[in-house]
Specification:
CATH class: Alpha Beta
Helix content: 10-25%
Distance between the termini: 15 Å
Strand content: 35-45%
Shape: elongated
Number of domains: 1
Strand order of the largest sheet: 2-5-4-3-1-6
CATH architecture: Roll
Radius of gyration: 16 Å
Order of helices and strands: EHHEEEEHE
Largest sheet: 6 strands, mixed
Length: about 150
C-alpha cells in the first residue's frame, strides 16, 4: 500500500448505528470522500476539472463488506486507478482499520468523463488520462488527526 494514495480518517459517532458500528450506507460516502481527495491529488481538485470544461459521474459503485468498523476507529483507505477506458475509468478502494490492519471494505467505482455543460460522455483528454494512469503514489491525506 505504500506506493498507493492513502486517505486516513476517523469514524464519527453520527456515522454509526446504536451498536456503534458504521452504518452500511456510510461506506458510499466514505468512497466519495476518498475519491475526492484522490482527485485533488491527481488533478488539483474538482474545480480544476470543471475549469477545463469536464466533469465526471459515478455510473457504478460496488462495495464488499469484510468486517465491521466502529465509532472512533481510524480507517486507512488505499485508492488506485485500476482501469482507464476511452471515456470511463475505475477507482479501486481498500479500507483497513489502521490499528489492527484488518480489512474492513473493498470497493470499486466506475466514473464516466462528461462535458461540464451538456453532461454528454466525452473521451478522457490525454493529460487527464496520464495522471489517472500515474496515480498519486506515496500521497497521504490524514484527516484523522494522528501521527504514525
Amino acid at each position: 500500500m505504500k506506493n498507493e494514495f492513502t486517505y486516513v480518517f476517523r469514524v464519527r459517532y453520527s456515522e454509526c448505528d446504536p451498536q456503534k458500528v458504521v452504518f452500511n450506507g456510510r461506506y458510499a460516502e466514505y468512497v466519495d470522500l476518498a475519491a475526492t481527495e484522490f482527485v485533488r491529488a491527481l488533478w488539483g481538485g474538482y474545480d480544476n476539472i470543471i475549469a477545463k470544461g469536464f466533469d465526471f459521474q459515478v455510473v457504478n459503485l460496488n462495495i464488499s463488506w469484510k468486517a465491521p468498523a466502529h465509532f472512533d476507529d481510524v480507517l486507512s483507505v488505499s485508492v488506485r486507478t485500476s482501469h482507464v477506458g476511452n471515456s470511463s475509468y475505475v477507482f479501486s478502494f481498500d479500507f483497513f482499520n489502521k490499528t489492527t490492519e484488518r480489512q474492513i471494505v473493498s470497493a470499486e467505482a466506475v466514473y464516466v468523463m462528461v462535458d461540464a455543460q451538456t453532461f454528454s460522455k466525452v473521451v478522457i483528454p490525454g493529460d487527464l488520462r496520464e495522471t489517472l494512469l500515474a496515480g498519486a503514489p506515496g500521497t497521504l491525506i490524514n484527516h484523522a488527526g494522528i501521527t504514525d
